[in-house]
Amino acid sequence: MLPHSLTFRLLVPILALALTLGLIGHAAAQNTSAPIQQVLQSQADLIEKSSRRTIEPAIAALRDSDLDAAQLVLEQWLARDMWLRTADGVFVYAEKVDRETLRIYDFATAELVGEAPADDFDQIKPNSGIQALIRSALVKFQLSDPDPATRIAALDSLSRDGNASHLPVLRDSIADEPDADIRARKDRIERLLTITYGASPEARIAAIETVRGDLGVDVRGALNPILATTRHAATTLPEDDNIARVLRPGEDLSEAEAYDLLVATDLAPARLTNDAQRETLQANIVDGAVGGVPVAALDTQSARDRAYAALVVSGDAQPAATASDVTEAVARHVFYDTYAEANPEVTEAAEAAIASIELRVAMSQFIDLSLDALSLASIYFLAAIGLAITFGVMGVINMAHGEFIMMGAYTGYVVQQVIPNYTLSIIVAIPMAFAVTFAAGVAMERLVIRYLYSRPLETLLATFGISIALQQIAKNVFGTQARPLTSPAWLDGQWVINDIIGISNIRIAIFVLALIFLAFFLFLMKKTRLGLETRAVTQNPKMAASMGINPDRVNMLTFGLGSGIAGIAGVAIGLYAKVTSELGADYIVQSFMTVVVGGVGNIWGTLLGATMIGFLQKGIEWLNPSNTLAAQTYMIVFIIIFIQFRPRGIIALKGRAAGD
User: Fold this and answer.
1) 397-409 b/e with 16+ CB inside 10 Å = b?
2) CA 120 to chain centre
3) What is the chain's mean pLDDT, rounded?
4) Are residues 458 and 559 in the same domain?
5) Which end of the chain has the smaller Cβ count within 10 Å, N or C?
6) 116 or 637: whose pLDDT is higher?
7) Residues 288, 295: contact at Cβ < 8 Å?
8) What's the rounded Cα separation, in Å, for the pair 298 and 311?
9) What is the pLDDT of residue 290?
10) Is the pLDDT at 436 greater than 90, yes or no?
11) Has residue 632 been placed in a domain?
């Protein structure tokens, strides 16, 4: 006989297990009559089989039951946590405590029932196909979930995998949607689903009309399947098919393609190739003849065709079409494309919608290309405005102008190392870059340029040498790696008008800066003493000197001003491009072209020249997007031709700059 203590220790787990099983049995007995359990019991056979082909009615019964517990059942079923108790067929959901024990929960109350042996339950394991159907059914509950993130996730799912069953539940959720943005998205997805799964052609056509001109990719994704076509061949055109177009062999498709279509649809035998015919004839030579045709006579195609036809009649060769048979068969049949959509009115509405979208796409692409061209033109204008002063006004060919742009960009980089606030650093960098490059320009004019006026070749060589020296100095100081010139956070992102038209905020800022410098330059030249003296020295330096103007001082300040503006342009360009020692070299050619094409010495000419080159380059790149170098080459050739017809540029200037 066992001791009392040992007996007690053995009885405790037995009693606990019995109590747990009793509680589970009691809970099951109570909840067998629960509405959700009744639905599950009515679909028990389908659920137990778990077949992708037969399970849909069971899932639909749960989805459409309007029971609060239906969502829980579907979620647990999807997670493979739904179990069936073998003793009485009650469905529960459970989590594994260990390999032998389950923690049981009731579907009706979502409350913990207790623990039980796993051997008493069968796990319901939906395959991937059934899981996809369950996810589709859960959308009904997710669309009305209190959490906006859940509703958005459901809409994301609908936009990818929506089907006809989702339309009613989506429509029911729209009226009670509290969030305006989510409601607008629900309306949009409802229209797109109606285009594909609408109950009537009228409803689908009405939905198609609402998306005319819409540039969304999802709209084209809904319309394109309607206009998808399949190619057919037949003896006569069918009357009931929605025919997209009738094809003419030799024009819309080749004779070979037409005959291949006949072969694919079993309307004609396979084509007989010359090699296959020759091999068959060689294999059937009997007593010096093939099919009654002497081998010596098989030197023409018609003779070989007769011999092969005789072999087909005797059963020694497979029926096949000769070249003449191909031509004859193609002539006897018709070829046509049919729409995947059977209703002609729906396809007509879809075609009209696609045409309106393509028209708007073309207009949007033109506007987007124009914005890109204006942005590029503003960059070229900023890079060239200083050169318009030094080259256009003073007649100095300054090959180091690009290096002043580079110096301005590096000045901005150095300022950002001292001032970590990007907005403040840019505000400080702009006048600092002007001061640095102004001083460098004055020093260059005093030390080199002043001795080379009216000697363009020597000026070009001297400034070219200076540009190489400045690049090497920049490499020695800053290294060869690109340095970051970071834009403020408020310049991040872009201004998006629609799915096609968009422009970055940095480019907008550069465009605004170009307008500011245009206004500044006009004010400087028209309203200030320096501008008056510069114009006087430009038009007639000797007369200006006789009027008390110091031409040397004016030349020095003008050259410094042009260099300083190049430095500011360097800060702006550095926010958009990589800051390296070669930064200026990337813009020196375009700067000279801008000034020359626009007309030397004229600010409006520089503006027009920058605009012309910007649009020209973007247009060529659009026509030849895969080869940027070729686009630049074509642009240079065009400009050379342009200068042949208008050597003084768009707006010619009279005075020293024009060579008068």
Assistant:
1) bbbbbbbbbbbbb
2) 55
3) 83
4) yes
5) N
6) 116
7) yes
8) 14
9) 83
10) yes
11) no
